[in-house]
Amino acid sequence: MISVSNRSSQSLRIVVLGYLVRCPIGGMAWHHMQYAIGLAALGHDVWFIEDSGDDRWSCYDPVSGITGPDPSYGLRFASEALACVGLGDRWAYHDAIAGVWHGPAADNARDVCRQADLVLNLSHANVLRPWLTDAPVRALVDTDPVFTQLRHCSDAARRERALMHNVFFSFGENSGGDSAIPDDGLPWQPTRQPVVLDKWRPTPGREDAPFTTVMQWDSYPAIEYDGVAYGMKSDSFGPYTDLPRRTSQAMEIALGSPSAPRKELRRNGWRVRDPLKATKDPWTYQRYIRRSKGEFSVAKHGYVAARSGWFSERSAGYLASGRPVVVQDTGFSAWMKTGRGVLPFTSPAEAIAGLEEVSAHYARHCREAREIAEAYFDANTVLAALVEKAMRTTVTNAAMEPEGATT
Description:
The chain is α/β, with parallel strands linked by helices and 407 residues long. The chain is built from 15 helices and 19 strands.
């Protein structure tokens, strides 16, 4: 049995609620694991806990392509991935459908949760069970800004579930500033993806390699609210469809979702790859990034339309690997130094100029990509700030209810 009282007086017990067993894909794994790895490196007593939720169709098996109640593939994936980053005995998975716990901390996971000082619910991917609600600080980390707020504005039950938390962070870094993120009445504070830099090895880039990205064409249906439509990457991509014909650079997409127009993209010069091969596990994903010249990517239309300030966790991984990124500006240029390493665009002409600029001064942009990662995404800095803010800004549900809130 694992001890649940092995923390020092200087550390917090932090439970990271993530999305690893149900979505066993390399990029998603890094997205969530880096919170646990980074917090442990800061000296905290960290546990990774995941819940199936109450939907029988919550577990994805990328080999069979089946989504269902069986977590077997994801449990193997999580076990291998977490063992490789030093968390092999500090995780558990609650299968609410079968009523059982899995993982090395299964026997005392509830006690671990009940003794937590801080619960971090990443992407609101987990329900807060009774063994989590006694934690004095329960932080919701919104990694899908605009769409999270839209759902809260239109779905009272979803908003009520959000109100089980008492601290709120968002990747919409322009929230409350120069943005049009819908106001759901919650006091969002800006945060961004933490990158554990010593887990990302920068290597010399190949100038003859393609610009790449890993993307979903349609993650879920577009949302219309108050007369404004907020769309997916498919809604952003149109003006860039013929980009390979207009630049000297090789362009590649590891592209998911059945609705993606793969034949049309290939006709326009895109190399279209199977995203599951590029993201089979965390290490395959990192190799795919390192084999790239850099990243080219559009953003979800909703992120752009609202000038949310969102910046991709995937793009942060490219930067940490020493790969420059040419990415659609969501308003992140308001808080990030750009022009070297990160080249934002708002039009095809700007995108082409960014690609050619990277190619013309490639070594410099690779070097500055890593420097941008160190300056803006270092987990030591990002997570220290998140914990400090969480522990001092806990608010009550009553204080979060705006006048005239829809219930």
